[in-house]
Amino acid sequence: MSPRVLRVALVQDRDRGSREANLAAIETAVGQAASAGARLVLLQELHNGPYFCQHESVDEFDRAEPIPGDSTARLSALARAHALVIVGSLFERRAAGLHHNTAVVFDADGSHRGTYRKMHIPDDPGFLEKFYFAPGDLGFTPIDTSVGRLGVLVCWDQWYPEAARLMALAGAELLLYPTAIGWDPADPQSEKDRQLDAWITVQRGHAVANGLPLLAVNRTGFEAAPDSSGRGIRFWGCSFVVGPQGEFLARAGEPEPELLLCDIDLARSETVRRIWPFLRDRRIDAYGDLLRRFRD
Amino acid sequence: MSPRVLRVALVQDRDRGSREANLAAIETAVGQAASAGARLVLLQELHNGPYFCQHESVDEFDRAEPIPGDSTARLSALARAHALVIVGSLFERRAAGLHHNTAVVFDADGSHRGTYRKMHIPDDPGFLEKFYFAPGDLGFTPIDTSVGRLGVLVCWDQWYPEAARLMALAGAELLLYPTAIGWDPADPQSEKDRQLDAWITVQRGHAVANGLPLLAVNRTGFEAAPDSSGRGIRFWGCSFVVGPQGEFLARAGEPEPELLLCDIDLARSETVRRIWPFLRDRRIDAYGDLLRRFRD
User: Fold this and answer.
1) Hey, what long-range contacts does B32-37 have (CB within 8 A, 24 or more apart)?
2) CB–CB of A95/A81 below 8 Å?
3) Would you state the pLDDT for residue A246?
4) For residue range B132-175, what is the model confidence (pLDDT) as tens digits?
5) Active-site residue among B65, B92, B118, B262?
6) In chain B, which ranges are continuous DSSP H helix?
7) Which of A108, A157, A269, B290 lies in the 20 to 30 Å Cα band around A71?
C-alpha cells in the first residue's frame, strides 16, 4: 500500500476574551499551520468565545451567529487564503429560539462543503447545553473535501460509539472532534485522572472499532463560572491524533495553547481493516434493539 | 452510595495438552479462587483444549461437546462445591455439522443459568473460526446470577461496540469476555504492541461508553501451528479488569498462567452514570442505519 500522507493541524487554545481576539488568534494559527504544510486545520468547539454553557442565561444567545454569516465568511476566506481545509465550530442561530452547536467545513478553495449539527447534547452541572442547543437534525453525515471524507462530530458525541460507527459506515476516512471539556476544580486528582483517561480511551476505542484515524482538539485554560452557582472549569487540553489501531500519532500538553501538527497516513486504514475486518462481521440481523432507549 | 463489592477471579492459562489436564487445572484454580474469597470465576475461551482454529480440519470437530454434557456437569459441580459463579467457554456440538463457540454460566448452587453463543465469528489467518462455528442465534442477552446480571460476550465480540451496548441496554451489570488472542510471531514488535494496546483500549472504551466494569481473560502460551501452513500463535495473556470509567482495577502479566483476583465495587456504575448519563442522550431516532451493512 503506498502511503497517502495528510498533514493536519489542531488549534488547541484558550478563550482570549472576545470574538475578535479569538478569530485573530485563529487566523495567526492557521497561517502557521499553512507554513508548516498542513492541509487540514481543526478548530476547537465554540472557538469564537468562552464556554458560556456553565450557566443558563438568555443573554448568552447574543453570541449566536447565522450560518452563513460573518464568521463563516471569515473562515472561508481564511481557508482560501491558505489553500487548506478548515473545520470550525459555531454557536448557530437558526431562528429566534432555535440554536445549534454546529461544525462548519470549508475546502481549500474557500467553498462551504458542509455543516454538522451536534447530535448528542449534554446537560450536566457546568455543561448546561440542553438550554442552548437543539439536538442536530442533519444526521451523522460525513462531509466531502479535497483531503478526504470527514466524519465531523462534536464533543459529547465523542462518548457515543454509535456516532463514530455511523460515520464509518458512510465512508468517513477521518473522525474529527472539536471539544470543550475540562475538570471541576473541586474534584480530587484521582477523579480528574480517570476522567481525562476515559475521554482519551473511549475515542481511541472508536478509532480501533472502525479502523480510522481520529483527531480530537480540546480547549484549554480556566474559565470562571459566570455566576456564583458554579466553580468554573479547567479545560484540560490534551488534544491528540491517533491512527486506525488507536495508536498515538501526536499529543498536546495539558495546560497551554498549542498548535499540534501531525502526519496521518490515510492508506493505513486499508491495511488495518484487511487484518481486522470488523465491518464484515457486524450482526446487523441482531442489532435491532440499538434503536430502543432501553431493553426493558 | 454504599459499596457493593464483588471479588472476581480470572483464570489465565495455557493449554495443558488434554481436556482432562485442562479441566484439572481449572478445578485447582477455582479452588484457589474460592479460598481467596472470589464469588465469580471467569475462564478463558475454549479452555478445554488448544486453540484448534489455526487450521481447518474436520477431525477437530471431535473436540466438540454437547450442552448439557460431561463438561457442563463438571463445571456445575465445581460451582456448587465452591459456592461461586463460573463462566465457562465450550466448543458446542449442537447437531451433526452445526457447532458453536459457546459460553455457559453456572450459579453458586450449580444451576445452569444461561448460555451465550458467540455472535461475531472471525476468520483471519490463524483464526479460522467461520469453518467451525455457526454465528450465535441467542442474541445479546445477559444472564442473571446471584452475583448480578452478566453480559457475557466472547473474543471477537470484544471489537464490537454494538455488542457491549446491547448488553448494557438489557441491564447487564458486568461485561465479561473469555478470549483467545495472540501474536503472529512473524509480526514486528511495533505491530505486536499496537495490537495488544488496541485490544485493551477498545474494551476499556466499552466500559466507558456504558459505565460498566469489564473483565477480559485471555489465553497464554505459544501454540504451534497444527500443520505447515501456519506460524503458530503466541497468546498474549494480559487479562484485565477495569471499572466503569475504564480505569484499571487489575492486570495480569503477559507470559504466564495466572489467577487474577480483583474486587469490583458494583455501586460505582450508579455513581459514574449519574455524572455521565450517556444512556439518556442516545439519538435512537437517528441510529437506523446501524442496521445496514454499509451506508452506500
Assistant:
1) B32/B259, B33/B9, B33/B82, B33/B84, B33/B259, B33/B261, B34/B82, B34/B83, B34/B84, B36/B7, B36/B9, B36/B259, B36/B261, B37/B7
2) no
3) 98
4) 999 999 999 999 999 999 999 999 999 999 999 999 999 999 99
5) B118
6) 19-35, 70-82, 161-169, 189-210, 268-275
7) A157
Reported as a single tens digit per residue, the pLDDT across B219-239 is 999 999 998 778 999 999 999
Residues of A in contact with B160 (CB under 8 A): 209, 278, 282-283
First to last CA, chain A: 47
Would you say the pTM of this structure is higher than 0.95? yes
If one counts every other C-beta atom within 10 angstroms of the C-beta of residue B107, the result is: 21
Q: How far is A26 from chain B (nearest CA, A)?
A: 31
Give B-chain residues touching A246 at CB under 8 angstroms: 194, 197-198, 201-202
pLDDT digits over A228-284, tens only? 778 999 999 999 999 999 999 999 987 899 999 999 999 999 999 999 999 999 999
Cβ–Cβ < 8 Å for A71, A64:
no
Say which of B53, B65, B92, B155 is annotated catalytic.
B155
Q: Give start and end residues of each alpha helix (H) in B118-188.
A: 161-169
Contact A262, A239 (CB under 8 A): no
- Euclidean distance between CA atoms A230 and B149, whole angstroms: 38
Return d(Cα B36, Cα B239) in angstroms, integer.
Answer: 18
**Catalytic annotation present for B45:** yes
B-chain CB neighbours of A205 within 8 Å are 161, 201-206, 208-209
CB atoms within 10 A of CB A134: 17
Measure in Å the smallest separation between the Cα of A137 and chain B Cα atoms. Answer: 9
What span, in angstroms and rounded, lies between the C-alpha atoms of B136 and A112? 46
Q: For the segment A9-65, what is each residue's pLDDT rounded down to a tens digit?
A: 999 999 999 999 999 999 999 999 999 999 999 999 999 999 999 999 999 999 999
DSSP secondary structure string for all residues of B2-56? ---EEEEEEEE----SSHHHHHHHHHHHHHHHHHTT-SEEEEPTTTTS--GGGS-
User: B161 CB contacts (<8 Å, ≥6 apart)?
Assistant: A161, A162, A165, A205, A206, A209, B205, B206, B209
- Give yes or no: B118 in active site: yes
Active-site positions of A?
Answer: 45, 118, 155
- Burial-class residue B70 by CB neighbours within 10 Å (0-12, 13-18, 19+): exposed
